[in-house]
C-alpha cells in the first residue's frame, strides 16, 4: 500500500481529475462547513481536499498512511501559505485522536483501497463530536457480481493497492452501524484521461494490453461503471454525508 502510493505521489498531486468541479467542488459543496469548525481529511494523500477544507474552516487536519504523501501535502500547503492546515501520518482504521476531537471528517477516493471500509467510517464517527458530520466520496461499482468482478480486474491490474470498490447500496449503507444517519446521497458522473490513469498506477504500463482488452469487452452493464471511449474513462462518484446523533 505505502509502496504504491509512494510511487504515485507526484503523478497523483498533478492529476487534473482530483481538482475538477465534479470530484472536488461537488464534494466540498456537499459538506456543511462553518468558519469556526475543525475538520479531518482521512487518507488525505497530497492534501488536495485538506487545502480546500482549510480555505473554508478554522482548522483542517490531514492524516495518511504513506509518509511520502504526508510530506508532499505539508510542502504544498506551506507553498500555498496555509497556516491553518496540518498533516500527520496515521492509519484510517485506528485514528490517533480522542473521541469528539473534530466537527467533521471526510475521506475521498480512499475506501476502495482499505479492506475494512466500515471500520474507517466507524473511526471517523468516533472522532467527530455528537451532532457533527462524516462524509465519504468514492467511485462506485455495479451490484452485479459479474460486472463488479470485471471492473475490479481492470482496476487491480493497473493499481495493485486497489482492494474493492463498493456498489451504491453498500457504500451509502456504510454509516448505519456507527450511529450515523444518512443526510444526503449524491452520485456525480465524472471522466478522466485514460493514458494519465494507466500511467499513474504501478501495474498500468506492464498490463496495458490486458487492461485494454478487458476495457474493450465490457459485460452487459459494464460500461455504466467503467466506460471507455475517445481516450476517456467514465466513472461515477458516490458522495455520502452522514450526521452523528446529538447527545
Ligand atoms: C487515491 S489516494 C486519495 C488521496 C486523497 N484522499 C484525495 O482524494 O486526493 C488514497 C490514499 O489513501 C491512503 N491510504 C490507504 N490506506 C490507508 C489507511 N489505512 N490509512 C490512511 N491512509 C490510507 C494512501 O496512502 C493514499 O494516499
Task: Explain how this protein is built.
With 247 residues, the protein is an alpha/beta fold. The chain has a single domain (2-140, 161-191, 235-244), classed as Vaccinia Virus protein VP39 (Rossmann fold, 3-Layer(aba) Sandwich), CATH 3.40.50.150. It is 36% helix and 28% strand. Strands 1, 2, 3, 4, 5, 6, 7, 8 and 9 form a 9-stranded mixed beta sheet that branches. β8 and β9 form a beta hairpin. The chain is globular. The mean pLDDT is 96. S-adenosylmethionine binds next to α3.
Short overview:
The chain is built from nine helices and nine strands. It has helices spanning 2-14, 21-30, 48-54, 67-79, 117-127, 145-158, 168-172, 194-200, 208-215, and strands at residues 38-42, 59-64, 85-89, 102-108, 128-141, 166-167, 180-193, 227-229, 232-244.
Distance between the termini: 37 Å
> Strand portion, in percent?
25-35%
Proportion in helices = 25-40%
Q: What is the H level of CATH, i.e. the homologous superfamily? A: Vaccinia Virus protein VP39
Please name the CATH topology.
Rossmann fold
Q: What is the total domain count?
A: 1
Query: Quick one: CATH class?
Result: Alpha Beta
Amino acid at each position: 500500500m505505502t509502496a504504491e502510493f509512494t510511487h504515485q505521489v507526484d503523478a497523483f498531486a498533478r492529476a487534473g481529475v482530483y481538482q475538477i468541479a465534479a470530484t472536488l467542488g461537488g464534494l466540498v459543496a456537499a459538506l456543511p462547513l462553518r468558519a469556526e469548525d475543525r475538520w479531518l481529511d482521512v487518507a488525505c494523500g497530497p492534501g488536495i481536499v485538506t487545502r480546500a477544507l482549510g480555505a473554508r474552516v478554522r482548522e483542517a487536519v490531514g492524516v495518511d498512511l504513506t509518509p511520502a504523501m504526508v510530506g508532499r501535502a505539508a510542502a504544498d500547503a506551506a507553498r500555498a501559505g496555509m497556516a491553518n492546515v496540518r498533516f500527520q501520518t496515521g492509519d484510517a482504521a485506528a485514528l490517533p485522536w480522542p473521541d469528539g476531537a473534530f466537527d467533521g471528517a471526510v475521506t475521498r477516493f480512499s475506501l476502495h483501497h482499505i479492506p475494512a471500509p466500515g471500520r474507517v467510517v466507524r473511526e471517523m464517527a468516533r472522532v467527530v463530536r455528537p451532532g457533527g458530520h462524516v462524509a465519504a466520496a468514492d467511485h462506485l461499482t455495479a451490484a452485479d457480481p459479474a460486472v463488479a468482478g470485471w471492473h475490479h480486474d481492470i482496476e487491480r491490474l493497473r493499481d495493485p493497492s486497489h482492494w474493492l470498490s463498493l456498489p451504491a447500496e453498500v457504500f451509502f449503507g456504510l454509516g448505519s452501524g456507527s450511529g450515523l444517519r444518512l443526510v444526503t446521497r449524491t452520485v456525480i458522473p465524472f471522466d478522466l484521461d485514460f493514458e494519465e490513469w494507466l500511467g499513474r498506477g504501478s501495474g498500468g504500463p506492464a498490463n496495458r494490453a490486458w487492461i485494454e482488452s478487458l476495457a474493450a469487452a465490457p459485460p452487459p452493464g459494464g460500461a455504466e461503471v467503467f466506460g471507455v471511449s475517445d481516450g476517456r474513462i467514465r466513472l461515477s462518484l458516490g458522495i455520502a454525508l452522514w450526521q452523528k446523533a446529538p447527545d
